[in-house]
Amino acid sequence: MSEKFAAVEIISAKRDKHELSNEQIDWTIDAYTRGVIADEQMSALLMAILLNGMNNREISKWTEAMIASGEKMNWSMLDRPTVDKHSTGGVGDKITLPLAPLVAACGAAVPQLSGRGLGHTGGTLDKLESIKGWKANLSNAEMLKVIQECGAVICAAGAGLAPADKKLYALRDVTGTVQAIPLIASSIMSKKIAEGTSALVLDVKTGSGAFMSDPKDAALLARTMVDLGKNAGVKTRALVTAMDVPLGLTAGNALEIRETLEVLAGGGPSDVIELTLLLANEMLDAVGIKPKVSPEEALKNGMAMDVWRKMITAQGGDNDAPLPVAKEKMEIKATASGKLLNLDAMKVGVAAWRLGAGRQKQGEVLQLGSGIEIHAKPGDLVTKDQAILTLHTDEVARFERAIDALVGGFSIGGKDDEVKRLPLVVERIEG
Ligand code: URA
Q1: Distance, CA 194 to ligand 1 centroid (Å)?
Q2: Does the C-beta of 150 come closer than 6 Å to ligand 1?
Q3: 83-320: which CATH number, 1.10.10.10, 3.40.50.620, 3.40.1030.10, 3.40.50.10860?
Q4: Signed CA dihedral, 240, 246, 247, 253: sign only
Q5: How confident is the model over 163-190, as pLDDT tens digits?
Q6: How far apart are CA 393 and CA 349, in angstroms?
Q7: Portions of the chain given CATH number 3.40.1030.10
Q8: Pocket mutation for ligand 1, best pick of 63, 113, 178, 187 (most atoms within 8 Å of C-beta)
Q9: 59, CA 20 to 30 Å: which among 193, 243, 383, 414?
């Protein structure tokens, strides 16, 4: 078949800071999905986009073309409105786990397509796979059945959804081109728009443990995604939230499921509860639901836990099976008494990754019990020799590299020293 354009023309245009036309963008995504544009050519184009950017029209067209590369899901047969949440990823960010059943318990339908861990950040599907028998891959018919029975489903995106993004994402991961706002925004939003949700709340992380460490970049990413959602008819809003310190008191798959169960049982760490409730209220508001039972109450009275247990069972999971526990533990202790001034999310994330909670290469089997328990958060008073962290792994040999990652990861000052950290919600952006 004769092609409309040549890849090298498109690469040169972006290299020379020209705008790509709608036709050029449509062809590029289609030709790459068909294998006509080679990976080395797409790598060059991605780098040119990272360096020279794209305007709003180009980002919007790039996103539309990625959506058009696959199927679009439809939930119009459900008797309640659909709403989803997406986090750009962080350390200890287990919020989706209590949030999806909670919002379902309050009356919305939550079709939550989630991902696996990426670099130092954890993935919702990996965490759920700590539960014996739980299945991430569902057909569209199975997904519909779970959402009809339980009100919420958390699963992997099927192969038919935005296949262009799957290819592009794998290439970006190995070509140093993940961190470009047009590419992140179009990657996330193409999947969310193709998923067919009627409303979307984005949790855009900022701080050391986030992909966008600078709050200004995070706000620009949030604004770009909110505009893409709005233009596609999805009611979209975003919170830019703190990821300078890990969320909650655990980072690692089974450890985070344990913490999720505490939250669903009405307990758990205050920052996890606060962010879960904030996002639940945003999600319900976005679809105009005024729940009879408030999200706060639904966490305390067991309604959210009931939906969770049903949802886990519907996806083959055994709610009563013990969670995996790592074979080895090591405590990291305070070297002085005083106030904990910081706890660096990136360093904790990298250490958890090195302990076996994340993958070093694609497809690697995780140590589901590995990770880090956090015993003190910035602002807490600690005493000399008190454990600040407990490291968990199946292999003693992993402790050394995890400890290396934690060098400078926390500091202890005088009890009157100021703790500098981001507020939990840095900015709210609505369409
Ligand atoms: N998550 C995605 O799905 N895509 C990105 O580019 C970054 C995070």
Answers
A1: 15
A2: no
A3: 3.40.1030.10
A4: positive
A5: 999 999 889 978 889 889 999 999 999 9
A6: 14
A7: 83-320
A8: 187
A9: 243
